[in-house]
Design goal:
By secondary structure, the protein is mainly β. Helices cover about 5% and strands about 65% of the residues. Strand 4 and strand 5 form a beta hairpin. The chain is elongated and about 60 Å long.
Length: about 200
């Protein structure tokens, strides 16, 4: 019994799984400024991802681990009493997706990092409600990186899998030059995003 017990458990472990899929959703985007600029969050529906997920066990005993990466088109932004600024962003996530399987469901726990590239930005003001393209220069930082975490639930109907998730992303890079508005009082701004998403994946 001592010998057959571990073998029986090992046989019940799921095989390695590869999935590709798409995901989209609704986000609340903001920037935490210091000193405060009376900023508010900006909602966005422009969030779309093409993702690859690889589930695997650890040491043949713990079938809870996974890795997810891909490409995401999303937005960053903030709103102050003077303007609303919205950035178009291309992001590459690298996420450890832990999963607990039961029945035809999975509980998902995400923890990871990301790298992004801010492609452009548009300012919306009372004088120009249609928006005006921001001229990027040395004061506007293209590169972005940070950490992310979240929870989700998945419905597995092979070969398809449907996922609903909530993730929080926090940038560790500044959104603009701290001396952009004053050479005496620096303004530090770190973007964040609360993302609610739906995804559909296919098992390979």
């Amino acid at each position: 019994m001592l010998l057959t017990g571990p073998l029986a458990r090992a046989q019940t472990l799921p095989q390695k799984q590869h999935m590709v899929g798409i995901r989209g959703g609704y986000a609340l985007n903001g920037v935490g400024f210091s000193p405060d600029r009376n900023q508010q969050m900006v909602p966005s529906f422009m969030n779309a991802s093409l993702l690859y997920t690889f589930y695997h066990d650890l040491w043949g005993t713990m079938p809870y681990f996974g890795l997810q990466t891909g490409f995401t088109y999303t937005q960053q932004g903030y709103k102050t009493p003077e303007l609303k600024r919205v950035y178009e962003v291309l992001r590459i996530p690298l996420t450890s997706q832990f999963h607990i399987d039961f029945w035809k469901m999975r509980l998902l726990i995400n923890l990871g990092c990301f790298g992004s590239y801010r492609m452009s930005a548009v300012d919306y003001t009372a004088e120009n409600p249609q928006g005006q393209q921001v001229t990027f220069d040395c004061n506007h930082l293209y590169a972005d990186y940070g950490i992310q975490g979240g929870l989700g639930l998945s419905l597995v109907l092979r070969p398809f899998e449907f996922q609903i998730e909530a993730n929080y992303l926090y940038s560790l890079s500044l959104i603009e030059n701290p001396a952009l508005y004053s050479n005496e009082i620096y303004t530090y701004g770190y973007p964040s995003q609360l993302l609610f998403s739906l995804g559909i994946f296919i098992h390979l």
